[in-house]
Write a structure and sequence with these properties.
The strands form 2 sheets. The protein has an 8-stranded mixed β-sheet. The protein is globular. Helix content is 45%, strand content 14%. By secondary structure, the chain is an alpha/beta fold. Bound molecules: phosphoenolpyruvate (PEP) and magnesium ion. The site of phosphoenolpyruvate has 11 residues, from strand 10 and helix 19. Magnesium ion (MG) binds next to helix 19.
Protein backbone atom coordinates (compact mmCIF):
# COMPACT_ATOMS: atom_id res chain seq x y z
CA UNK A 1 0.00 0.00 0.00
CA UNK A 2 1.09 3.58 -0.67
CA UNK A 3 2.32 5.49 2.38
CA UNK A 4 -0.66 7.79 1.92
CA UNK A 5 -3.51 8.27 -0.55
CA UNK A 6 -4.69 11.85 -0.79
CA UNK A 7 -8.05 12.86 -2.21
CA UNK A 8 -8.51 15.88 -4.46
CA UNK A 9 -10.53 16.93 -7.49
CA UNK A 10 -9.53 15.66 -10.93
CA UNK A 11 -9.67 18.61 -13.32
CA UNK A 12 -7.59 17.48 -16.27
CA UNK A 13 -7.78 13.78 -17.08
CA UNK A 14 -4.73 11.55 -17.19
CA UNK A 15 -2.33 9.49 -15.11
CA UNK A 16 1.29 10.19 -14.30
CA UNK A 17 4.02 8.69 -12.14
CA UNK A 18 7.04 10.71 -11.08
CA UNK A 19 8.94 12.68 -8.49
CA UNK A 20 7.23 15.49 -6.60
CA UNK A 21 8.57 18.99 -6.76
CA UNK A 22 7.08 21.92 -4.84
CA UNK A 23 7.10 25.25 -6.56
CA UNK A 24 5.38 27.04 -3.72
CA UNK A 25 3.99 26.25 -0.31
CA UNK A 26 1.51 28.19 1.76
CA UNK A 27 2.72 31.73 2.51
CA UNK A 28 3.52 31.68 6.21
CA UNK A 29 3.00 34.86 8.14
CA UNK A 30 6.14 36.80 8.82
CA UNK A 31 7.61 36.15 12.25
CA UNK A 32 7.76 39.33 14.26
CA UNK A 33 10.89 38.46 16.22
CA UNK A 34 13.21 40.61 18.27
CA UNK A 35 16.86 39.59 17.99
CA UNK A 36 19.48 39.77 20.75
CA UNK A 37 21.45 43.06 20.80
CA UNK A 38 24.70 41.54 19.48
CA UNK A 39 23.05 39.64 16.63
CA UNK A 40 22.44 42.53 14.23
CA UNK A 41 25.50 41.89 12.05
CA UNK A 42 24.74 38.24 11.53
CA UNK A 43 21.07 39.05 10.88
CA UNK A 44 22.07 41.57 8.21
CA UNK A 45 24.41 38.98 6.70
CA UNK A 46 21.53 36.47 6.69
CA UNK A 47 19.36 38.98 4.82
CA UNK A 48 22.08 39.78 2.30
CA UNK A 49 22.73 36.10 1.69
CA UNK A 50 19.02 35.40 1.11
CA UNK A 51 18.75 38.34 -1.30
CA UNK A 52 21.79 37.14 -3.20
CA UNK A 53 20.45 33.55 -3.35
CA UNK A 54 17.16 34.77 -4.74
CA UNK A 55 19.01 36.87 -7.30
CA UNK A 56 20.95 33.82 -8.43
CA UNK A 57 17.81 31.73 -8.71
CA UNK A 58 16.18 34.43 -10.77
CA UNK A 59 19.18 34.54 -13.08
CA UNK A 60 18.87 30.78 -13.59
CA UNK A 61 15.14 31.13 -14.26
CA UNK A 62 15.82 33.90 -16.78
CA UNK A 63 18.34 31.76 -18.63
CA UNK A 64 15.80 28.95 -18.85
CA UNK A 65 12.91 31.00 -20.20
CA UNK A 66 11.78 29.27 -23.41
CA UNK A 67 12.36 31.25 -26.61
CA UNK A 68 8.67 31.95 -27.20
CA UNK A 69 8.37 33.63 -23.79
CA UNK A 70 11.51 35.78 -24.08
CA UNK A 71 9.43 38.94 -23.78
CA UNK A 72 8.70 38.01 -20.20
CA UNK A 73 12.39 37.79 -19.29
CA UNK A 74 12.44 41.57 -18.78
CA UNK A 75 10.27 41.10 -15.70
CA UNK A 76 12.83 38.72 -14.25
CA UNK A 77 15.64 41.21 -14.92
CA UNK A 78 13.79 43.91 -13.06
CA UNK A 79 13.19 41.54 -10.13
CA UNK A 80 16.92 40.80 -10.06
CA UNK A 81 17.61 44.51 -9.77
CA UNK A 82 15.14 44.85 -6.89
CA UNK A 83 17.14 42.18 -5.01
CA UNK A 84 20.02 44.65 -4.87
CA UNK A 85 18.01 47.83 -4.49
CA UNK A 86 19.34 49.85 -1.54
CA UNK A 87 15.83 51.19 -0.87
CA UNK A 88 14.87 47.66 0.02
CA UNK A 89 17.92 45.79 1.27
CA UNK A 90 19.88 48.65 2.82
CA UNK A 91 16.70 50.08 4.36
CA UNK A 92 15.83 46.69 5.85
CA UNK A 93 19.38 46.26 7.17
CA UNK A 94 19.16 49.68 8.83
CA UNK A 95 15.96 48.63 10.56
CA UNK A 96 17.59 45.44 11.82
CA UNK A 97 20.36 47.53 13.40
CA UNK A 98 18.11 50.32 14.71
CA UNK A 99 15.25 48.24 16.08
CA UNK A 100 16.80 44.80 16.69
CA UNK A 101 14.18 43.04 14.65
CA UNK A 102 14.47 39.87 12.55
CA UNK A 103 15.27 40.20 8.84
CA UNK A 104 11.81 38.99 7.73
CA UNK A 105 10.10 41.69 9.77
CA UNK A 106 12.58 44.38 8.70
CA UNK A 107 11.93 43.50 5.08
CA UNK A 108 8.21 43.84 5.63
CA UNK A 109 8.69 47.31 7.10
CA UNK A 110 10.96 48.38 4.24
CA UNK A 111 8.33 47.26 1.71
CA UNK A 112 5.60 49.17 3.53
CA UNK A 113 7.75 52.33 3.49
CA UNK A 114 8.25 51.96 -0.27
CA UNK A 115 4.53 51.29 -0.76
CA UNK A 116 3.63 54.44 1.19
CA UNK A 117 5.99 56.52 -0.95
CA UNK A 118 4.66 54.99 -4.18
CA UNK A 119 1.02 55.54 -3.24
CA UNK A 120 1.51 59.29 -3.73
CA UNK A 121 2.61 58.83 -7.36
CA UNK A 122 -0.01 59.79 -9.88
CA UNK A 123 1.05 57.63 -12.79
CA UNK A 124 -0.72 54.28 -12.24
CA UNK A 125 1.93 52.38 -14.15
CA UNK A 126 4.72 53.53 -11.88
CA UNK A 127 2.51 53.29 -8.79
CA UNK A 128 1.81 49.64 -9.36
CA UNK A 129 5.49 48.73 -9.61
CA UNK A 130 5.31 48.32 -5.86
CA UNK A 131 3.76 44.93 -6.60
CA UNK A 132 7.12 43.84 -8.00
CA UNK A 133 8.87 44.97 -4.84
CA UNK A 134 6.39 42.96 -2.78
CA UNK A 135 6.88 39.88 -4.95
CA UNK A 136 10.65 40.03 -4.58
CA UNK A 137 10.45 40.68 -0.83
CA UNK A 138 8.22 37.60 -0.50
CA UNK A 139 10.79 35.50 -2.30
CA UNK A 140 13.53 36.72 0.00
CA UNK A 141 11.34 36.06 3.03
CA UNK A 142 10.63 32.58 1.73
CA UNK A 143 14.36 32.02 1.40
CA UNK A 144 14.94 33.32 4.92
CA UNK A 145 12.58 30.75 6.38
CA UNK A 146 13.93 28.02 4.14
CA UNK A 147 10.94 27.65 1.87
CA UNK A 148 11.13 26.81 -1.79
CA UNK A 149 10.03 29.86 -3.69
CA UNK A 150 12.64 29.53 -6.36
CA UNK A 151 11.75 28.40 -9.85
CA UNK A 152 12.43 24.86 -11.00
CA UNK A 153 15.95 23.81 -10.14
CA UNK A 154 16.42 20.83 -12.40
CA UNK A 155 15.29 21.80 -15.84
CA UNK A 156 16.44 18.52 -17.36
CA UNK A 157 14.19 16.47 -15.19
CA UNK A 158 10.47 16.01 -15.73
CA UNK A 159 8.60 16.35 -12.50
CA UNK A 160 5.17 16.23 -10.89
CA UNK A 161 4.60 19.83 -9.91
CA UNK A 162 3.15 20.47 -6.48
CA UNK A 163 1.99 23.86 -5.26
CA UNK A 164 -0.16 25.36 -2.58
CA UNK A 165 -1.97 27.21 -5.32
CA UNK A 166 -1.26 28.36 -8.85
CA UNK A 167 -2.94 31.33 -10.41
CA UNK A 168 -3.56 31.13 -14.18
CA UNK A 169 -0.75 33.68 -14.54
CA UNK A 170 1.64 31.43 -12.55
CA UNK A 171 0.65 28.42 -14.61
CA UNK A 172 1.34 30.25 -17.86
CA UNK A 173 4.87 31.00 -16.74
CA UNK A 174 5.74 27.36 -16.03
CA UNK A 175 8.03 25.37 -18.31
CA UNK A 176 5.26 22.99 -19.34
CA UNK A 177 7.46 20.47 -21.13
CA UNK A 178 9.06 19.67 -17.78
CA UNK A 179 5.77 19.07 -16.03
CA UNK A 180 4.18 15.62 -16.22
CA UNK A 181 1.21 16.60 -14.11
CA UNK A 182 0.38 18.87 -11.25
CA UNK A 183 -1.40 18.89 -7.93
CA UNK A 184 -2.42 21.85 -5.79
CA UNK A 185 -3.74 22.16 -2.27
CA UNK A 186 -6.22 24.86 -3.30
CA UNK A 187 -8.65 24.97 -6.22
CA UNK A 188 -12.11 23.73 -7.13
CA UNK A 189 -13.86 21.85 -9.90
CA UNK A 190 -13.77 24.67 -12.44
CA UNK A 191 -10.98 26.94 -11.20
CA UNK A 192 -9.16 28.55 -14.12
CA UNK A 193 -5.85 26.87 -13.39
CA UNK A 194 -7.51 23.50 -13.92
CA UNK A 195 -9.01 24.76 -17.15
CA UNK A 196 -5.58 25.86 -18.31
CA UNK A 197 -4.14 22.44 -17.40
CA UNK A 198 -6.65 20.83 -19.74
CA UNK A 199 -5.66 23.18 -22.52
CA UNK A 200 -2.03 22.33 -21.99
CA UNK A 201 -2.91 18.62 -21.78
CA UNK A 202 -1.33 18.24 -18.36
CA UNK A 203 -3.14 15.87 -15.97
CA UNK A 204 -4.09 17.82 -12.85
CA UNK A 205 -5.66 17.29 -9.44
CA UNK A 206 -6.57 20.34 -7.36
CA UNK A 207 -7.96 20.93 -3.86
CA UNK A 208 -5.83 18.13 -2.38
CA UNK A 209 -6.14 18.06 1.40
CA UNK A 210 -2.87 17.88 3.34
CA UNK A 211 -0.78 17.93 0.17
CA UNK A 212 1.91 20.07 1.74
CA UNK A 213 1.99 18.13 4.99
CA UNK A 214 2.23 14.70 3.34
CA UNK A 215 4.63 15.21 0.45
CA UNK A 216 8.18 16.48 0.28
CA UNK A 217 10.36 17.17 -2.73
CA UNK A 218 11.60 13.99 -4.35
CA UNK A 219 8.80 11.71 -3.11
CA UNK A 220 7.57 9.25 -5.70
CA UNK A 221 3.91 9.95 -6.42
CA UNK A 222 1.18 8.67 -8.69
CA UNK A 223 -1.24 11.34 -9.87
CA UNK A 224 -4.54 9.70 -10.73
CA UNK A 225 -6.25 12.60 -12.49
CA UNK A 226 -9.16 10.37 -13.47
CA UNK A 227 -10.38 9.79 -9.93
CA UNK A 228 -8.64 12.70 -8.22
CA UNK A 229 -6.14 10.72 -6.12
CA UNK A 230 -2.48 11.21 -5.22
CA UNK A 231 -0.66 8.08 -4.06
CA UNK A 232 2.45 8.91 -2.06
CA UNK A 233 5.28 6.32 -2.10
CA UNK A 234 3.23 3.67 -3.93
CA UNK A 235 4.13 -0.02 -3.59
CA UNK A 236 5.12 -2.33 -6.47
CA UNK A 237 1.58 -3.54 -7.11
CA UNK A 238 0.19 0.00 -7.29
CA UNK A 239 2.98 1.05 -9.60
CA UNK A 240 2.22 -1.88 -11.88
CA UNK A 241 -1.55 -1.18 -11.87
CA UNK A 242 -1.10 2.48 -12.62
CA UNK A 243 1.50 1.90 -15.30
CA UNK A 244 -1.11 -0.32 -16.91
CA UNK A 245 -3.90 2.26 -16.49
CA UNK A 246 -1.69 4.99 -17.94
CA UNK A 247 -0.96 2.80 -20.94
CA UNK A 248 -4.66 2.00 -21.43
CA UNK A 249 -5.61 5.66 -21.08
CA UNK A 250 -3.07 6.72 -23.68
CA UNK A 251 -4.21 3.98 -26.04
CA UNK A 252 -7.81 4.99 -25.59
CA UNK A 253 -6.90 8.59 -26.41
CA UNK A 254 -5.14 7.46 -29.57
CA UNK A 255 -8.02 5.26 -30.69
CA UNK A 256 -10.70 7.92 -30.30
CA UNK A 257 -8.51 10.51 -31.97
CA UNK A 258 -8.60 8.46 -35.15
CA UNK A 259 -12.36 9.01 -35.46
CA UNK A 260 -12.52 12.54 -34.17
CA UNK A 261 -13.11 14.23 -37.50
CA UNK A 262 -16.42 12.40 -38.01
CA UNK A 263 -19.47 14.66 -37.47
CA UNK A 264 -20.90 15.09 -33.97
CA UNK A 265 -24.17 13.33 -34.68
CA UNK A 266 -26.23 11.05 -32.46
CA UNK A 267 -27.31 7.58 -33.62
CA UNK A 268 -30.70 8.99 -34.56
CA UNK A 269 -29.30 11.88 -36.59
CA UNK A 270 -29.29 14.88 -34.21
CA UNK A 271 -26.28 16.99 -34.98
CA UNK A 272 -24.58 19.65 -32.92
CA UNK A 273 -21.39 21.67 -33.27
CA UNK A 274 -18.54 20.67 -31.00
CA UNK A 275 -16.30 23.69 -30.62
CA UNK A 276 -13.29 24.45 -28.47
CA UNK A 277 -12.59 26.71 -25.50
CA UNK A 278 -9.08 28.02 -25.88
CA UNK A 279 -6.81 30.50 -24.16
CA UNK A 280 -3.87 30.63 -26.56
CA UNK A 281 -3.51 30.76 -30.36
CA UNK A 282 -1.04 27.85 -30.06
CA UNK A 283 -3.97 25.54 -29.27
CA UNK A 284 -5.50 25.85 -32.75
CA UNK A 285 -3.75 22.78 -34.25
CA UNK A 286 -5.08 20.66 -31.41
CA UNK A 287 -8.60 21.95 -32.09
CA UNK A 288 -8.40 21.14 -35.77
CA UNK A 289 -6.68 17.74 -35.33
CA UNK A 290 -9.24 16.79 -32.72
CA UNK A 291 -12.13 17.51 -35.11
CA UNK A 292 -13.37 20.72 -33.47
CA UNK A 293 -15.94 22.81 -35.34
CA UNK A 294 -14.12 26.07 -34.63
CA UNK A 295 -13.58 27.95 -31.37
CA UNK A 296 -16.71 28.60 -29.33
CA UNK A 297 -14.89 30.51 -26.64
CA UNK A 298 -11.61 32.36 -26.96
CA UNK A 299 -10.69 33.56 -23.48
CA UNK A 300 -8.97 36.76 -24.59
CA UNK A 301 -7.83 37.76 -21.10
CA UNK A 302 -4.86 35.37 -21.11
CA UNK A 303 -2.95 37.63 -23.47
CA UNK A 304 -3.34 40.41 -20.88
CA UNK A 305 -1.87 38.41 -18.00
CA UNK A 306 1.83 38.28 -17.10
CA UNK A 307 2.51 41.62 -18.71
CA UNK A 308 3.44 44.99 -17.39
CA UNK A 309 1.26 46.98 -19.78
CA UNK A 310 -1.92 46.09 -21.65
CA UNK A 311 -1.38 44.97 -25.24
CA UNK A 312 -1.74 47.63 -27.94
CA UNK A 313 -4.51 47.54 -30.54
CA UNK A 314 -2.00 46.40 -33.16
CA UNK A 315 -0.76 43.53 -30.98
CA UNK A 316 -4.34 42.43 -30.36
CA UNK A 317 -5.24 42.80 -34.00
CA UNK A 318 -2.27 40.61 -34.97
CA UNK A 319 -3.28 37.94 -32.48
CA UNK A 320 -6.98 37.99 -33.39
CA UNK A 321 -6.54 38.13 -37.15
CA UNK A 322 -4.06 35.28 -36.98
CA UNK A 323 -6.61 33.24 -35.05
CA UNK A 324 -9.47 34.10 -37.40
CA UNK A 325 -7.29 33.28 -40.40
CA UNK A 326 -6.08 29.95 -39.01
CA UNK A 327 -9.61 28.82 -38.24
CA UNK A 328 -11.33 30.16 -41.33
CA UNK A 329 -13.90 29.12 -42.58
CA UNK A 330 -14.67 27.83 -39.10
CA UNK A 331 -15.99 30.33 -36.58
CA UNK A 332 -14.09 31.87 -33.70
CA UNK A 333 -16.00 33.46 -30.85
CA UNK A 334 -14.00 36.25 -29.22
CA UNK A 335 -15.09 36.74 -25.65
CA UNK A 336 -14.25 40.25 -24.51
CA UNK A 337 -11.93 40.61 -21.56
CA UNK A 338 -13.12 38.55 -18.58
CA UNK A 339 -10.66 39.71 -15.96
CA UNK A 340 -11.19 39.80 -12.23
CA UNK A 341 -11.72 37.07 -9.63
CA UNK A 342 -8.77 34.70 -10.18
CA UNK A 343 -7.53 36.46 -13.32
CA UNK A 344 -6.42 39.82 -12.00
CA UNK A 345 -4.75 42.51 -14.02
CA UNK A 346 -2.35 44.59 -11.98
CA UNK A 347 -4.78 47.55 -12.13
CA UNK A 348 -7.34 45.39 -10.41
CA UNK A 349 -5.21 44.14 -7.55
CA UNK A 350 -4.79 47.82 -6.65
CA UNK A 351 -8.49 47.97 -5.91
CA UNK A 352 -8.18 45.43 -3.09
CA UNK A 353 -11.76 44.32 -3.58
CA UNK A 354 -13.03 42.38 -0.59
CA UNK A 355 -14.86 39.92 -2.82
CA UNK A 356 -13.45 40.04 -6.35
CA UNK A 357 -15.69 37.28 -7.77
CA UNK A 358 -18.59 39.63 -7.05
CA UNK A 359 -16.63 42.71 -7.96
CA UNK A 360 -15.44 44.67 -10.96
CA UNK A 361 -15.12 41.61 -13.17
CA UNK A 362 -15.57 41.01 -16.91
CA UNK A 363 -17.99 43.41 -18.63
CA UNK A 364 -18.10 45.57 -15.50
CA UNK A 365 -14.36 46.12 -15.72
CA UNK A 366 -14.65 46.88 -19.45
CA UNK A 367 -17.43 49.42 -18.99
CA UNK A 368 -15.35 51.14 -16.30
CA UNK A 369 -12.11 51.02 -18.32
CA UNK A 370 -13.46 51.90 -21.70
CA UNK A 371 -10.06 52.67 -23.18
CA UNK A 372 -9.09 48.99 -22.82
CA UNK A 373 -12.53 47.83 -23.99
CA UNK A 374 -12.60 50.03 -27.09
CA UNK A 375 -9.09 48.99 -28.02
CA UNK A 376 -10.09 45.36 -27.82
CA UNK A 377 -13.33 45.88 -29.75
CA UNK A 378 -11.47 47.67 -32.53
CA UNK A 379 -9.01 44.79 -32.78
CA UNK A 380 -11.75 42.15 -32.83
CA UNK A 381 -13.80 44.02 -35.44
CA UNK A 382 -10.75 44.50 -37.64
CA UNK A 383 -9.88 40.79 -37.28
CA UNK A 384 -13.42 39.89 -38.36
CA UNK A 385 -12.39 40.86 -41.90
CA UNK A 386 -9.98 37.90 -41.92
CA UNK A 387 -12.32 35.02 -41.14
CA UNK A 388 -15.55 34.15 -39.44
CA UNK A 389 -15.69 35.95 -36.10
CA UNK A 390 -18.34 36.42 -33.42
CA UNK A 391 -18.27 38.61 -30.34
CA UNK A 392 -19.31 37.50 -26.86
CA UNK A 393 -19.86 39.71 -23.81
CA UNK A 394 -19.22 37.94 -20.47
CA UNK A 395 -21.11 38.25 -17.20
CA UNK A 396 -24.05 40.27 -18.48
CA UNK A 397 -26.47 40.83 -15.62
CA UNK A 398 -29.19 42.82 -17.36
CA UNK A 399 -30.40 44.70 -20.40
CA UNK A 400 -28.87 48.02 -19.44
CA UNK A 401 -25.38 46.57 -19.30
CA UNK A 402 -25.87 44.80 -22.63
CA UNK A 403 -27.13 47.98 -24.27
CA UNK A 404 -24.18 49.95 -22.94
CA UNK A 405 -21.76 47.39 -24.37
CA UNK A 406 -23.56 47.38 -27.72
CA UNK A 407 -23.63 51.15 -27.80
CA UNK A 408 -19.85 51.26 -27.41
CA UNK A 409 -19.52 48.58 -30.08
CA UNK A 410 -21.54 50.76 -32.46
CA UNK A 411 -19.35 53.76 -31.72
CA UNK A 412 -16.26 51.69 -32.48
CA UNK A 413 -17.83 50.50 -35.74
CA UNK A 414 -18.45 54.13 -36.71
CA UNK A 415 -14.81 54.98 -35.94
CA UNK A 416 -13.63 52.17 -38.20
CA UNK A 417 -16.00 53.34 -40.94
CA UNK A 418 -14.61 56.83 -40.65
CA UNK A 419 -11.07 55.49 -40.86
CA UNK A 420 -11.96 53.28 -43.82
CA UNK A 421 -10.87 50.12 -41.98
CA UNK A 422 -12.62 46.92 -43.07
CA UNK A 423 -14.61 44.66 -40.73
CA UNK A 424 -17.52 42.23 -40.94
CA UNK A 425 -20.66 44.37 -40.51
CA UNK A 426 -22.73 41.24 -39.79
CA UNK A 427 -20.46 39.83 -37.09
CA UNK A 428 -22.82 38.00 -34.70
CA UNK A 429 -22.95 39.38 -31.16
CA UNK A 430 -23.84 37.16 -28.21
CA UNK A 431 -23.70 37.08 -24.44
CA UNK A 432 -22.54 34.63 -21.84
CA UNK A 433 -25.49 33.57 -19.70
CA UNK A 434 -23.75 32.91 -16.43
CA UNK A 435 -25.65 34.89 -13.83
CA UNK A 436 -29.02 33.88 -12.40
CA UNK A 437 -30.40 37.33 -13.29
CA UNK A 438 -29.57 36.70 -16.97
CA UNK A 439 -31.33 33.33 -16.79
CA UNK A 440 -34.53 34.88 -15.51
CA UNK A 441 -34.63 37.60 -18.16
CA UNK A 442 -33.21 35.41 -20.91
CA UNK A 443 -36.21 35.93 -23.17
CA UNK A 444 -35.72 39.70 -23.14
CA UNK A 445 -31.97 39.36 -23.63
CA UNK A 446 -32.50 36.95 -26.53
CA UNK A 447 -34.33 39.69 -28.42
CA UNK A 448 -31.21 41.85 -28.48
CA UNK A 449 -28.46 39.36 -29.38
CA UNK A 450 -27.67 36.77 -32.04
CA UNK A 451 -26.74 33.87 -29.76
CA UNK A 452 -26.30 32.72 -26.18
CA UNK A 453 -23.39 30.90 -24.67
CA UNK A 454 -24.23 29.38 -21.30
CA UNK A 455 -21.26 29.58 -18.95
CA UNK A 456 -22.10 26.89 -16.47
CA UNK A 457 -18.84 27.26 -14.53
CA UNK A 458 -20.00 30.63 -13.29
CA UNK A 459 -23.71 29.90 -13.46
CA UNK A 460 -23.20 27.16 -10.87
CA UNK A 461 -20.95 29.40 -8.78
CA UNK A 462 -23.41 32.28 -8.72
CA UNK A 463 -26.64 30.25 -8.52
CA UNK A 464 -25.54 28.00 -5.69
CA UNK A 465 -23.36 30.61 -3.98
CA UNK A 466 -20.21 28.50 -4.19
CA UNK A 467 -16.78 29.91 -4.95
CA UNK A 468 -15.67 27.78 -7.88
CA UNK A 469 -12.07 27.82 -6.67
CA UNK A 470 -12.76 26.91 -3.04
CA UNK A 471 -12.15 23.26 -2.19
CA UNK A 472 -14.02 23.52 1.11
CA UNK A 473 -17.34 23.95 -0.65
CA UNK A 474 -16.63 21.98 -3.78
CA UNK A 475 -18.86 19.16 -2.49
CA UNK A 476 -21.74 21.60 -3.05
CA UNK A 477 -20.61 22.50 -6.56
CA UNK A 478 -23.14 20.24 -8.24
CA UNK A 479 -23.64 20.62 -11.99
CA UNK A 480 -26.84 18.59 -11.92
CA UNK A 481 -28.45 20.40 -8.99
CA UNK A 482 -32.14 20.66 -9.97
CA UNK A 483 -31.85 24.46 -9.96
CA UNK A 484 -29.01 24.30 -12.48
CA UNK A 485 -30.71 21.81 -14.79
CA UNK A 486 -33.88 23.91 -14.76
CA UNK A 487 -31.95 27.14 -15.33
CA UNK A 488 -30.17 25.74 -18.36
CA UNK A 489 -33.40 24.36 -19.76
CA UNK A 490 -35.13 27.71 -19.22
CA UNK A 491 -32.40 29.55 -21.12
CA UNK A 492 -32.38 27.05 -24.01
CA UNK A 493 -36.16 27.31 -24.33
CA UNK A 494 -36.11 31.14 -24.21
CA UNK A 495 -33.41 31.27 -26.87
CA UNK A 496 -35.20 28.88 -29.18
CA UNK A 497 -38.51 30.67 -28.74
CA UNK A 498 -36.77 33.87 -29.85
CA UNK A 499 -35.05 32.06 -32.74
CA UNK A 500 -31.44 32.28 -31.59
CA UNK A 501 -28.92 29.49 -31.04
CA UNK A 502 -27.46 28.30 -27.74
CA UNK A 503 -24.06 26.89 -26.96
CA UNK A 504 -23.00 25.49 -23.58
CA UNK A 505 -19.39 26.40 -22.90
CA UNK A 506 -18.84 25.44 -19.26
CA UNK A 507 -16.96 22.31 -18.16
CA UNK A 508 -20.32 20.52 -17.78
CA UNK A 509 -20.43 20.07 -21.55
CA UNK A 510 -17.37 17.80 -21.48
CA UNK A 511 -18.65 15.66 -18.65
CA UNK A 512 -19.96 12.43 -20.18
CA UNK A 513 -22.59 12.16 -17.44
CA UNK A 514 -23.95 15.65 -18.06
CA UNK A 515 -23.79 15.82 -21.85
CA UNK A 516 -26.89 13.62 -22.47
CA UNK A 517 -29.00 15.97 -20.34
CA UNK A 518 -27.85 18.95 -22.40
CA UNK A 519 -28.54 17.04 -25.60
CA UNK A 520 -32.03 16.24 -24.36
CA UNK A 521 -32.62 20.02 -24.16
CA UNK A 522 -31.68 20.29 -27.84
CA UNK A 523 -28.79 22.64 -27.44
CA UNK A 524 -27.18 23.72 -30.71
CA UNK A 525 -23.52 23.52 -29.77
CA UNK A 526 -21.06 22.78 -27.02
CA UNK A 527 -17.68 24.36 -26.54
CA UNK A 528 -15.14 22.39 -24.52
CA UNK A 529 -11.42 21.99 -23.87
CA UNK A 530 -9.70 20.87 -27.11
CA UNK A 531 -8.30 17.84 -25.30
CA UNK A 532 -11.85 16.68 -24.52
CA UNK A 533 -13.25 16.94 -28.06
CA UNK A 534 -12.39 13.45 -29.40
CA UNK A 535 -13.71 11.63 -26.32
CA UNK A 536 -16.93 13.60 -26.13
CA UNK A 537 -17.60 13.20 -29.84
CA UNK A 538 -17.03 9.49 -29.47
CA UNK A 539 -19.64 9.28 -26.70
CA UNK A 540 -22.06 11.56 -28.54
CA UNK A 541 -21.91 9.52 -31.73
CA UNK A 542 -23.11 6.46 -29.83
CA UNK A 543 -25.89 8.27 -27.99
CA UNK A 544 -29.54 8.27 -28.87
CA UNK A 545 -31.43 11.58 -28.78
CA UNK A 546 -34.73 9.97 -27.81
CA UNK A 547 -33.05 8.39 -24.80
CA UNK A 548 -31.55 11.73 -23.84
CA UNK A 549 -34.97 13.37 -23.92
CA UNK A 550 -36.38 10.61 -21.74
CA UNK A 551 -33.51 10.96 -19.27
CA UNK A 552 -34.04 14.72 -19.18
CA UNK A 553 -37.76 14.22 -18.41
CA UNK A 554 -36.85 11.98 -15.46
CA UNK A 555 -34.20 14.39 -14.24
CA UNK A 556 -36.60 17.33 -14.37
CA UNK A 557 -39.08 15.49 -12.20
CA UNK A 558 -36.48 14.76 -9.49
CA UNK A 559 -35.94 17.18 -6.66
CA UNK A 560 -32.56 16.29 -5.14
CA UNK A 561 -29.06 16.24 -6.54
CA UNK A 562 -28.33 12.77 -5.25
CA UNK A 563 -31.41 11.30 -6.96
CA UNK A 564 -30.43 12.97 -10.21
CA UNK A 565 -26.78 11.92 -9.95
CA UNK A 566 -27.76 8.32 -9.23
CA UNK A 567 -30.25 8.26 -12.09
CA UNK A 568 -27.78 9.73 -14.56
CA UNK A 569 -24.89 7.55 -13.49
CA UNK A 570 -26.93 4.40 -13.78
CA UNK A 571 -28.15 5.25 -17.28
CA UNK A 572 -24.82 6.42 -18.65
CA UNK A 573 -22.76 3.79 -16.92
CA UNK A 574 -24.92 1.04 -18.35
CA UNK A 575 -24.25 2.39 -21.80
CA UNK A 576 -20.53 3.04 -21.62
CA UNK A 577 -19.20 0.90 -18.75
CA UNK A 578 -15.63 0.61 -19.97
CA UNK A 579 -14.93 4.00 -21.45
CA UNK A 580 -16.04 5.93 -18.41
CA UNK A 581 -12.85 4.78 -16.66
CA UNK A 582 -11.02 7.19 -18.96
CA UNK A 583 -13.02 10.29 -18.08
CA UNK A 584 -13.02 12.39 -14.96
CA UNK A 585 -16.42 13.69 -13.91
CA UNK A 586 -17.64 16.67 -11.91
CA UNK A 587 -20.32 14.51 -10.32
CA UNK A 588 -19.73 13.22 -6.81
CA UNK A 589 -18.34 9.74 -7.01
CA UNK A 590 -20.12 8.39 -3.94
CA UNK A 591 -23.78 9.02 -4.84
C1 LIG B 1 -18.09 29.73 -17.62
O1 LIG B 1 -18.22 30.56 -16.71
O2 LIG B 1 -18.73 28.67 -17.66
C2 LIG B 1 -17.12 29.95 -18.70
C3 LIG B 1 -17.06 29.14 -19.72
O3 LIG B 1 -16.26 30.99 -18.59
P1 LIG B 1 -15.01 31.01 -17.61
O4 LIG B 1 -14.75 29.60 -17.16
O5 LIG B 1 -13.89 31.58 -18.37
O6 LIG B 1 -15.47 31.90 -16.49
MG1 LIG C 1 -17.48 32.51 -16.80
Amino acid sequence: MAREILQGIAVSAGVSIGKAFFTNRRRRSVSFEIIPPGAADSEVARLEQAASDVRENLARARDNVPAELRDHAAIINSHMMICQDPKLIRAASQRIRDHHIAAEWALDQAVEAIAAAFSAIEDPYIRERVQDVRAVAERIQARLVGRHAEPLRTPDERIVLMAHDLTPADAMGLPTVKIMSFATAEGGKTSHTGILARSLQIPAVVGVSSLEESITDGDLVIVDALRGLILVDPDEAELADYTDLKYQFENYQKSIRRQSTLPAETLDGYRIDVQANIELVEEVPQVLDGGGDGVGLYRTEYAFLNRRTSPTEEELYDEYSQLAGLLSPRRVVFRTLDVGADKMLSEQSQLEEPNPALGLRAIRFCLRHQDVFRRQLRAILRASAHGSASLLFPMISGLHELRQAKHILNEVRAELDAAGLPYDPDMPVGIMVELPSAVLISEALAQEVDFFSIGTNDLIQYSLGIDRGNKHVSYLYQPLHPAIVRSIKYVVDSAHRMGISVCVCGEVASDPYCLPILLGMQIDAISIAPQAIPGIKHILRRTNMEECKELLRDVLSASTVSTINRMVKETIYNRFPEELTFFSSMLDQDD
